[in-house]
Amino acid sequence: MITFAPGPSKVYDALPQYLQDAYAQGILSANHRSAVFMNLYRDTEQLFREKLQVPADFTLLFTSSATESWEIISQSLVVQSSYHLYSGSFGKKWLEYAQYILPATQGQKLGANESIPVDQLQLGSEVDLIAVTQNETANASQVPMTVLKGLAARYPEKMIAVDTTSSMGGIALDFSLADVWYASVQKCFGLPAGLGILLLSGKAKEKVARKGEKGRYNSLSFMLENAASYQTHYTPNVLGIYLLFRVLQDMDPIAQVDTRLRQRMETLEQTISQSAAFQLLVDNPATRSTTVAAISGEEQAIVAIKKAAEKEGMQLGGGYGPLKASSFRIANFPAITDAEFMRLVDFLKSY
């Protein structure tokens, strides 16, 4: 069964070999204070710079998941409040968790077809950080880099944090446009869940130092202190980090991955546009995700096509939250091969 669910999604076909190599090399019992781990951490960070074009002043940190970053960001980088720009369920959850920590936090919900109205935003000095859900997995909407560039130009004094849970590793991101980027490995990195990625710019690290936060276990100051020697403040998912390292080693440069996924998504969109029963949930191409497609239709039609796909050995992703009954989702992640993706497209054409 090939899964097209948008996370956890299909893992890379090379994963069994990676696991065997990890066992043979003693990674499964490697001490996180050892030279073996520190070298692995250093090499993984270097591959992020090379393959994903991450600037030299950024530091790579590891967490348990992308959602853990919600709490870390609010507690370590926000003094008064953050302002959240989002269009779906996951962006809303980030806002709600931030409000538990800092009640003054506010946000603006946009429609899936709406672009962020950068010129209309009026953010006061009480807002320390702008939070953007760049790729909303729930409704398959996306914030393009041009909008982030506008935000960075309009509010250069504020921090910008970006949720790229379903896009990092799949599309080219301009990391210079924001200060905090986070993701999880079970999406575009084609790995099992259980490892989060948190990237901090030089500006973000300077703010952590100015804030001088002490005494909290999961604080960025404590995490960065350990990362300076390529260690972690807790016993990490060493296997997950090793698997990420192997994926980064084998992956093409992000510009090539980006081109391939955009071409595949265009083919899928053209196929859905010819369907009488289904429509793309996001009409606006400017706000439509490259890595996740959400397709809407009548509830009975959704149930029927998912069953038909399973008979053909393919699992379609379900709708999320309020869109559960009226949509299904398709992951366009790099671990899914071109042949597998075209098999799905052919099924949709003939359905």
Task: Provide the fold topology.
Elements: E1 2-3, H1 15-24, H2 35-52, E2 59-63, H3 68-77, E3 81-86, H4 89-101, E4 106-109, E5 127-133, E6 135-136, E7 141-142, H5 145-154, E8 159-163, E9 180-184, E10 196-200, H6 202-211, H7 220-227, H8 238-250, H9 254-273, E11 279-280, E12 292-296, H10 299-311, E13 314-315, E14 317-318, E15 327-331, H11 338-350
Parallel strand pairs: 1-13, 3-4, 3-5, 5-8, 8-9
Antiparallel strand pairs: 2-10, 6-7, 9-10, 11-12, 12-15, 14-15
Helix pairs in contact: 1-8, 2-8, 3-4, 9-11
Provide a short characterization of the protein structure:
It is built from eleven helices and 15 strands. With 351 residues, it is α/β, with parallel strands linked by helices.
